[in-house]
Design goal:
With about 280 residues, the chain is mainly beta. The chain has 2 domains: about 100 residues, Immunoglobulins (Immunoglobulin-like), CATH 2.60.40; about 150 residues, Sandwich (Immunoglobulin-like). Helices cover about 0% and strands about 50% of the residues. The protein is built from no helices and 20 strands. A hairpin with a 4-residue loop joins strand 18 and strand 19.
């Protein structure tokens, strides 16, 4: 593979590189949402650059893209994308335009990259960028529709990273103090909804609701699980939800909640008649 020797680089923040702050403090009342601060996708003006006018991640038909806009009257014919080891990943010719787009595919790892502008094979300037995978959590609640025998958790999230998130290659599971926990090696893909419509992926900046694919808060009889041990007593429970992508990005959320009221039968399963999420917080 081609390599570019290291020269001056200017760090430019792209996507989400700062740690998101926590929310969902323990003073939340049942039904109130926590709110994790999220950094939105944003354009990045390279004010100190004579070549790179703007760099941003944008949604594409199949993958997210890194769009690089070149300053006017700049004598540049190619832009290359290189990883932190100086290995060329992609290179684009400018042609008659002033912008190029690099596909941010699933196999491209998160991390530091260099954009290298050249003319006739000679480096003119380079710009450093951070490409991240990240989600922020806006709310955690219990999904329990009246017209369907289901009780489980769902999350409101935003894709705050630079890559598209493929839901078919993503896991969302729950463990801890729940009536029907999952083994971590059996976590399955969540159902993702955008405006009540199921979707297969989330583009950068897109908001969605993610729902666990199994009924974590129910059991098949009153002689198994926590429902046979006073599980509807209203005592505080703590569960851990974990979000994993195929690329290795992981997000964990601690949820404090209660199940109260009386055990009720819903079709072939049992659950509690009342429930509430008291607080939640991302733990990593």
């Amino acid at each position: 593979m081609s390599r570019i020797p290291t020269r001056r680089s200017m760090l430019m923040s792209l996507g989400v590189t700062a740690a998101a702050t926590l929310a969902g403090c323990s003073q939340n009342t049942p039904g109130e949402s926590g709110n994790e601060t999220n950094s939105n996708q944003s354009s990045n003006d390279s004010n100190d650059s004579s070549v790179f006018a703007n760099v941003e991640s944008v949604a594409g038909e199949w993958n997210a893209k890194l769009r690089v806009t070149i300053s006017e009257d700049t004598d540049v014919d190619k832009i290359g994308l290189y990883d932190s080891n100086g290995v060329k990943k992609q290179r684009k010719s400018l042609g008659a335009g002033s912008a190029v787009e690099f596909a941010l595919s699933e196999d491209l790892p998160s991390g530091a990259y260099d954009l290298v502008a050249t003319t006739d094979g000679t480096e003119v300037e380079r710009q450093s960028v951070e490409l991240d995978r990240s989600i922020s959590i806006q709310d955690v609640r219990i999904y329990a529709p009246e017209d369907h025998p289901s009780q489980t958790f769902e999350l409101d999230v935003t894709n705050t990273g630079d890559f598209r998130l493929d839901m078919t290659n993503t896991e969302l599971g729950v463990s801890g103090d729940v009536p029907n926990p999952e083994r971590k090696d059996l976590f399955s893909s969540p159902t993702a909804f955008v405006d009540s419509k199921a979707v297969g992926h989330l583009s950068p900046g897109q908001e969605a609701t993610l729902r666990l694919s199994h009924d974590a808060l129910q059991t098949h009889s009153l002689t198994e699980g926590d429902l046979s041990k006073g599980g509807c007593s209203g005592e505080k429970r703590v569960a851990t939800m974990q979000f994993n992508t195929a690329s290795g990005y992981t997000k964990e959320i601690k949820v404090e909640y209660t199940l109260s009221g009386e055990p009720e039968r819903f079709s072939v399963v049992y659950g509690c008649s009342d429930w509430a999420v008291n607080s939640w917080e991302p733990v990593k």
